[in-house]
Amino acid sequence: MKNSSRIIPRGPFKGKKIEFAPTTGIDKFRAISEDFMNKIFGLGLGEYLISDESSLYDFTGLDEMHLPDIHKKIQEIYNIDVSGIKSRNLLEIFKRIRDCKSGASC
Question: How far is the C-alpha of 50 from the C-alpha of 30, rounded, in Å?
Fold first, then answer.
């Protein structure tokens, strides 16, 4: 993609650049992220966009779910408590899911 194609051509943000957050970390957890997004938020592949900087905050209000509801659902489905992850970062949550699946204490 050419650099100039990421510059907004018109409107109130004319001349501003669009820069997407990296997904290198999320890409390493593709299977976990797809399973998580489906089981927690009911979203299928192609119905969401997440990056290494995405967090649970980005999905609060979806189906009227708030953080306590999301935490509870994660606890029920994955048997892990993520309420201690202050950033609510999805990448950190996916790492914890992976670690718990591999036998680490949750």
Answer: 11
pTM attached to this predicted model: 0.82
Q: What is the DSSP string of the chain?
A: --GGGGB--SSTTTTPBP-PPP-HHHHHTHHHHHHHHHHHH---TTS----TT-BGGGGTTGGG--HHHHHHHHHHHH----TT-TT-BHHHHHHHHHHHHTT---
| C-alpha–C-alpha distance, residues 35 and 64, integer Å | 20
pLDDT in tens, 63-86: 888 999 999 999 999 999 999 999
CB atoms within 10 A of CB 33: 23
Q: Which of 105, 97, 100 is nearest to 33 (CA)?
A: 97
CB 95 within 8 A of CB 78: no
Q: How far does the chain reach from its first CA to its final CA, in angstroms?
A: 42
Distance in angstroms (rounded) separating the CA atoms of residues 89 and 79? 18
Closest CA to 59 of 80, 44, 71, 41: 41
